[in-house]
């Protein structure tokens, strides 16, 4: 396999993965698991809250619309990747907009992935230790089992968790995480199946709420408030930073398109099932983190055992997703700090130091910030929307290689305009809400 140093990626990667030979390449199934794991992160926890804000019909329609646009944007990225000399997202941005473009992307990936990793730890902390939502305290699983002690507190449990995650976070090839990714997808499916089964039982027992099909703007909810749900879905489908590392390890470039399409379909269905079942169970009391609804103090008829299974299954899923996002975050930060240094994997000291520093920063912020909805709003309406839609659309409109068709330009223009409008309205709504507080 021919290797080339991608100056923008800061890593050594196969120059033309579609021409690779032999059996050393990653499998399509492994790519599907890694892509699905990249997509299904903490965003799923706030999907039921988006149904509460938007209503069932607009929310489900928006889920599949964002998934479709995500596939289109990835297709744009890969087409320009194969037409250029680089094999990374940052490299494609560099070819189109110079060093400023690649730096802007890396900064966006830094904030997006850092925000997502912090959100993961916040949710895991909510599951294991106490959390506060809507003015009430929700005990974590370990506190319910073992009582409230310093060693069942959020700070200690998250510190212990990160220590246990170090071996996975130290992996130098993304394909090495395929087994943990497969387990994480399985755990997400377990979460979906159990929550859906509980919702179906609630329907037959007559204890389920009647979900709104359309948004309710008659009360305190304004038109602008509806756009606060958009950043959540954008964040839930922002996985573009892992497409190139995963695709590079496949033997054929056509395998990546199949893996992306299959992953997006699976994730859209999972999001829809979790969103509807969660909203069906808890109605207008649905919280920003749906796992906070699944506790022993909940007013629902769900048994304590099922409450714990639901929460623990998804907490374990997030634990296994954590190393995958840390992988792309580490590459981006290395490219920002050491743009001319040799491959990150060739320097054990630099690799280890970056990993430990990132884990430490994420831990400190996660302990200090209690609310995931605020982080979702920030990440989804700014850096997330740039990575997923604005940058890929801008690459097509720039058309450095002269390969964009009229249809591509129209679609890219519509994608960028919609992304900017939705992001602007979400930011405006957030600013108004903060001003009122």
TrEMBL record:
UniProt-listed InterPro entries: AA_transpt_TM
GO molecular function, one term: L-amino acid transmembrane transporter activity
Coarse class of the protein's main subcellular location: membrane
Ranges that cross the membrane: 31-51, 57-78, 107-130, 150-170, 182-206, 226-247, 259-282, 314-337, 349-369, 375-397, 409-432
Domain Amino acid transporter transmembrane intervals: 25-428
Subcellular location: Membrane
Top-level taxon: Eukaryota
A Pfam entry, by short name: Aa_trans
Cellular component, GO, one term: organelle membrane
Membrane topology (UniProt): Multi-pass membrane protein
Keyword Isomerase: no
Keyword Transmembrane helix: yes
Keywords attached to this entry: Amino-acid transport, Membrane, Transmembrane, Transmembrane helix, Transport
Protein name in UniProt: Amino acid transporter transmembrane domain-containing protein
Source organism: Aristolochia fimbriata (White veined hardy Dutchman's pipe vine)
